[in-house]
# Entry
Amino acid sequence: MIAYRAALITGASSGIGRALALVLAGPGVTLHLCGRNAERLQATADACAGRGATVHARVLDVADAGAVAAWVNAAGPLELVVANTGISAGSGRGAAETEAQARSIFAVNVDGVLNTVLPALNLMRRQERGASGRRGTIAVIASMAAFTPTPGAPSYCAGKAAVDTWTVATAHGAARDGIVMTSVCPGYIRTAMTAHNRFPMPGLMEADRAAAIILRGLAASRRRLVFPWWVGLAARLAGLLPPRLSGALLGLAPGKHALLDPT
Ligand SMILES: NC(=O)c1ccc[n+]([C@@H]2O[C@H](COP(=O)([O-])OP(=O)(O)OC[C@H]3O[C@@H](n4cnc5c(N)ncnc54)[C@H](OP(=O)(O)O)[C@@H]3O)[C@@H](O)[C@H]2O)c1
# Structure
């Protein structure tokens, strides 16, 4: 695993972001962490500081482009940036997604990624190359939902498809600048996001195991990291079906927590 000396993670107050922060934390490491819930964010910061890291925690909404750009620029130089923040909500079986759900999911899961990654790319292009030849590493936490237009979660799937495609396509040019970009597409991870799901979650994985897999994938300069592979394969195959058929099959699954505020 690469030992990153300076890393920035959005959505570090719980789940995958928190697990990544904890794995990275250690003496000589500086972590910049954000989230909206000050109490949960401070708990992550304290746990990381307890492992010897220097931690700067910031209560921040990733939908606020100006605030995120200022935060990223002030944090630099950065060896690793993880655009991890995401929210999810569903429409419930047979119901329509609300406008509020759709707009908040796109604002956080799509704009929030651009708000984080665009300033990070600009920052890293100005950095010196490290011993590995890299100027920096950027991970975008997308999802296997990118591969399947699931009727119960239209905006979540569409937003993840957008950031996955954007990351993989942007990674090509970024590599010429010495920046590694990886789209991370996990299956089901046990976090607050999946705690509401009342349906079988094949391959459900703990967040700390997911964090270890993600960091190995980044070290290997993967452009897209899909895990567990067999759940990814099933998602890809479902996505290849004709839309009416995939809609009928995927529509059988209960939606995400129906008609709740996106969390
Ligand atoms: N869990 C899964 O099965 C799974 C699978 C594939 C992909 N993913 C993706 O993995 C990422 C992390 O999700 P998770 O499962 O770890 O869920 P989680 O435990 O709910 O974590 C989401 C994090 O994002 C933060 N956040 C939400 N909205 C924010 C905003 N507007 N501004 C700043 N921070 C915000 C939350 O903190 P606050 O509440 O403090 O703001 C929290 O720290 C997401 O992008 C998700 O889509 C998850």
In short: Residues 10-17, 34-37, 40-41, 60-63, 84-88, 108, 141, 143, 186, 188-189, 191-194 surround NAP (CB under 6 Å). Residues 258-263 have pLDDT under 50 and may be disordered.
